[in-house]
Amino acid sequence: METNINAVKIAALNLLYKGISGAQLSVGFKAPQYVYGELLSMYDYYELFSNSKNLNKGNTVFCDLGSGLGKANLAVSACFNVSESIGIEAIPLLYRVSQEHLKIYEEVIGSRIQYHGKTRFFLAKVEEIQENWIHADTIFLNSLTWTKKSIRKIVSLFKRLKTFTEIFTSTELSCTYLRLSKVFNVKMNFSTVKVYLYIKLG
Length: 202
Known about the structure:
By secondary structure, this protein is α/β, with parallel strands linked by helices. The protein is built from 7 helices and 7 strands. The chain is globular, with a radius of gyration of 16 Å.
């Protein structure tokens, strides 16, 4: 039954984002490392995050560091029993679109289909508002185009995460306080890429 309900939610989300490309909207932004990549469909987000132990426990906090149009956040809020879904985006246009889609979802779709935790989007750089996401149980970091310097800066902040926090990322990471758990092949708007699941160690 739950699978059928989630299928309806995902179909509604796909309609919500139909014809809108985050990659096209981010072209020309002053920092090229922020050019946006996204998974092919809302089902791909759902399928990826179904591998999360924390999200499947319920009443947890999800955060997308570089949330773009907010697709991952809405997929998680709709299909998993989270208490909060947080998105942080540095590109103003993508942030505005995420806010608009959140409003439509909550007023039109979410009122008809059970909608879980509160979703919030922030227009900021990830490191500037770390107190808003450092408590997350599951983090998504789609960072293929990020500079090595930016990645190192973010990974250094992961020291503050709780033990057993999950990090789904498109960048292979190497540090003593993260353990690689699984690797997935995920279809994105430009190719199939590897997404790594790391667990924060104590």
